[in-house]
Amino acid sequence: MDVAIIGAGLAGLTTAKVLLQAGHDVEVFDRTPDLGGVWSRTRRYPGVTTQSPKAQYSFSDFPMPAHFPEWPTGAQIQDYLEAYAAEFGVTAHLRLGTTVEAAVPDGPQWTVTTRAAGEAVTRTFDRVVVANGVFCEPAIPGYPGHAEFAGAGGRLLAGSDFHDVEDARGKHVLVVGYGKSACDVTVALSEVAADTTVIARQLLWKVPRRIAGFLNFKMLLLTRMGEALFRYRWLRGFEKFLHGPGNRLRRSMLNTIGTVSVRQFRLDRHGLVPRGRMEDIVKGAIGLATEGFFEGVADGSIRVRRDMTIKRLLADGGRPGAELADGTVLPADLVVCATGFTQGVPFLDDAVQRRLFDERGNFMLYRQIQPVGVPGLYFNGYNSSFFSPLNAEMAALWIAADLAGALALPGAEARRADVVGQLAFLDEATGAHHCRGTKIIPFSMHNVDEVLGDLGLQVSRRTRAAHWLNPVSPAAYRKLTPTLLTRLADRNETPKPSNAAL
Q1: Within a domain: residue 500?
Q2: What is the spatial distance between Cα 284 and Cα 229, in angstroms, rounded to a whole number?
Q3: Exposure on the CB side of residue 2, measured as CA atoms within 13 A
């Protein structure tokens, strides 16, 4: 089949790689001039690193270079993805600097219109895979007074649009947000700015990279045991004990990490202890502490205004500034908003979008991949997790199997009911903080298991047992792709879409 893939981040690249190996023709479109998605040089902010260690942020069959640090930089991840694309023959299929303006169903096929260098091109594809990512469009608050603020020389921009730390040298800087990206960029800015203040609407629990200075956090939260500490929709095996008779032990294990974080970062001394308990982190965000952030708080180079928002931007005496919700006015030459993203698919027409979303705007995706009732359309990368490359790779296998008619899926109504149930579960488990149904942290491996269950594939019980107490290793899944490709090649019939997909 001819398959259009929208997005050249890690999800788009692994989808292209798997589909090429399965014998399909692909074209990968991305509006940026380089590959990498969130790791593109057009989107990298100063100080960005991975949240997961390099071993867990790797594809199964392509390890990261040994000389990379434990938490690689954004530039290193882009280098890694470029090497991955070259190794598996994807580079020749990239159409960079190309915007997808429309993808419209046309009978059993799709008509896709793209634009590059001012020229529009329309062609037909058999299938479309949306891989533009859940972090595609930064969400910047619409502050009153922006025109006055800008007129006085102030700058307001998203964290992903801030690229040169020298633009902050000697300036008064506000960073809005308290997630990982906010803390990352704050540390970089604080090294050159006159002063750096974080405006945090809500404090989040931060997990030390090394708990008590020596135990890597991956030993606790990037294991199957760590994932089992959070109640999933279905309880299996030892999870039934942890969320039943062992509930007190489970809560103690999680909240002990919070106690260590308070002590290690001296959060009580700085007035930065989040509300609630560590076990509630899934209802906000599981954030890895940025090296240097709390050290900056301690030495005064970083200030945090907790439980606070910006009321309006202004020009105070001809200088740009910001009024906070409590009436305080701060000088602000630069306001960097690390306030999240919106998940947009503007290239899909209204008829498709009506079938794609529920009444609250959540994505209705079976297995985070397939919109029910929209034949020939798939998503990949709409499963943000601690193991995003692995989750995307397994989703690519699922797509390849469905293109070959090799999946025996429930009927459309059963799949729709499953999606509704999953969204209801995420609402409860995360306090509705699931990015419109696209964030599956901390249930990353549950998603992998469900996808592989559909495929009739799985790593050995021994491997899964090893991952119960040791960090999950994506490399343990490297044999699944050749196994599936062999199975598909052995099928005697011409590849065609499954009835379930239609």
Answers
A1: no
A2: 16
A3: 9
